[in-house]
Amino acid sequence: MRAIKGVLLTCDSAVKQILLTMNEKDPFVIEDLDDYHLVIKADEEYRVRRELEAELEKNTYSLEAS
């Protein structure tokens, strides 16, 4: 068994569910620790953060002045 370099992510349960859904398409989660913590592959961190930001942006509503 070889070691895998990982990064600990702390997030709320809603964001964690989005991450687990993203993980189904392209696996990056090493370990699901509890309701607020995940360990992900270190070399996937930038991609995961970028995709998560895009996903959260889709779910953000803002009032625009007309």
Q: What this model shows, in words?
A:
Helices cover 41% and strands 21% of the residues. Strand 2 (29-32) and strand 3 form a beta hairpin. The chain has a 3-stranded antiparallel sheet with strand order 1-3-2, covered by helices on one side. The longest helix has 14 residues, at 45-58. The protein is an alpha+beta fold.
Average of the residue pLDDT scores: 91
N-to-C CA distance: 60 Å
Low-confidence regions: none
Helix percent reads 40-55%
Number of strands: 3
What would the principal axes of the Cα set say about the shape?
elongated
Fold blueprint:
Blueprint: E1 6-10, H1 13-25, E2 29-32, E3 37-41, H2 45-58
Antiparallel strand pairs: 1-3, 2-3
Helix pairs in contact: 1-2
Summarize the structure.
Strands 1-3-2 form a 3-stranded antiparallel β-sheet, covered by helices on one side. The protein is built from 2 helices and 3 strands, in the order E-H-E-E-H.
